[in-house]
Amino acid sequence: METHTAKILDGKALAQKIQTELAATITESQPKIGRVPGLAVLMVGDNPASAAYVKNKEKACAKVGIASFGKHFPTQTSQTELEAVIAQLNEDERVDGILVQLPLPNHLDAVGLLHTIAPDKDADGLHPVNLGRLVRGETGLRSCTPAGVMRLLQEYKISLAGKQAVVLGRSILVGKPMALMLLEADATVTIAHSRSQDLKTITQNADILIAAVGIPGLITADMVKPGAVVVDVGINRVTDSSGKNSLVGDVQFAATADVAEYITPVPGGIGPMTVAMLLQNTVSSYLQVHNL
Ligand SMILES: Nc1nc(=O)c2c([nH]1)NC[C@@H]1CN(c3ccc(C(=O)N[C@@H](CCC(=O)O)C(=O)O)cc3)C=[N+]21
């Protein structure tokens, strides 16, 4: 019997290719600009997952030739202290990108801090000015995860114009900007979320299905239209019955791969693309400053 298996959208490979290209761009621009690009990552507290992400980002920076100005603050650091640090980084000519690693400890106002980042150094693309630019279809720094999804779809020449795209999740970090980017690419966009009724009917209509909810295995094969493109943004750390830790997405990968045409793996899908887009945003701010 013939069995169908989806093609893999290989985010890890594309992220590596993008990083190689960014390294070449930096090598070429550095003599003209007189310095390398710089990214400041602010981390508060000692969430182990955040620490691991921050370390990954710093490693990626080193690989492409971006200087990282990592700053680690104790849990009890105040809002005022952090605002002062950001104000300083906004003025620092060696710094092209600033990122506040989320989540922050509860006593801090993450949105308030975000507002203090200079929009043109907002490597995460989450400042209201950059979100507003996205709404208006203007150029600006784009949120890294949805930008990574768009770049991956583009790499595999997946056409979006006129297609039914369904985004599961409505966060500021992923769902909302994702929907806007798909709309910009002329898809017919539906946003579904935790209050949506009859999710299965909605997802079964999707030519392009983007899962960004953070619920391991929420999307089962029967929810997916045969031939659909399935993008799994979920990164969930789970422990199985034998006590082993693993990373899984929002999509039941193996069964869904039997019905979809394309699917992203977890790990190795959108995670690495997110990091690649963060570096790309930093480099684009770096070039912008010098009109290159
Ligand atoms: N201000 C801010 N911006 C962020 O972009 C941000 C954040 N805060 N806080 C946490 C989340 C999470 N996140 C990930 C990025 C890459 C991988 C990644 O590369 N994952 C690998 C696996 C890594 C592993 O094995 O642990 C993969 O999917 O293949 C995962 C998660 C960015 N985040």
Automatic annotation (TrEMBL):
Domain Tetrahydrofolate dehydrogenase/cyclohydrolase catalytic: 9-124
Pfam family name, one: THF_DHG_CYH_C
GO process annotations (BP): L-histidine biosynthetic process; methionine biosynthetic process; purine nucleotide biosynthetic process; tetrahydrofolate interconversion
Subunit (UniProt): Homodimer.
Transmembrane segments: none
GO cellular component: cytosol
Listed pathway(s): One-carbon metabolism; tetrahydrofolate interconversion
Listed GO MF terms: methenyltetrahydrofolate cyclohydrolase activity; methylenetetrahydrofolate dehydrogenase (NADP+) activity
Positions bound to NADP(+): G169, R170, S171, I235
EC id: 1.5.1.5, 3.5.4.9
Claim: Lipid biosynthesis is one of the keywords in the record: no
Keywords (A to Z) from UniProt: Amino-acid biosynthesis, Histidine biosynthesis, Hydrolase, Methionine biosynthesis, Multifunctional enzyme, NADP, One-carbon metabolism, Oxidoreductase, Purine biosynthesis
Catalytic activity: (6R)-5,10-methylene-5,6,7,8-tetrahydrofolate + NADP(+) = (6R)-5,10-methenyltetrahydrofolate + NADPH; (6R)-5,10-methenyltetrahydrofolate + H2O = (6R)-10-formyltetrahydrofolate + H(+)
Membership in a protein family: Belongs to the tetrahydrofolate dehydrogenase/cyclohydrolase family.
Keyword Hydrolase attached: yes
Physiological role: Catalyzes the oxidation of 5,10-methylenetetrahydrofolate to 5,10-methenyltetrahydrofolate and then the hydrolysis of 5,10-methenyltetrahydrofolate to 10-formyltetrahydrofolate.
Organism encoding this protein: Richelia sinica FACHB-800
Residue intervals of the Tetrahydrofolate dehydrogenase/cyclohydrolase NAD(P)-binding domain: 143-286
Name recorded for this polypeptide: Bifunctional protein FolD
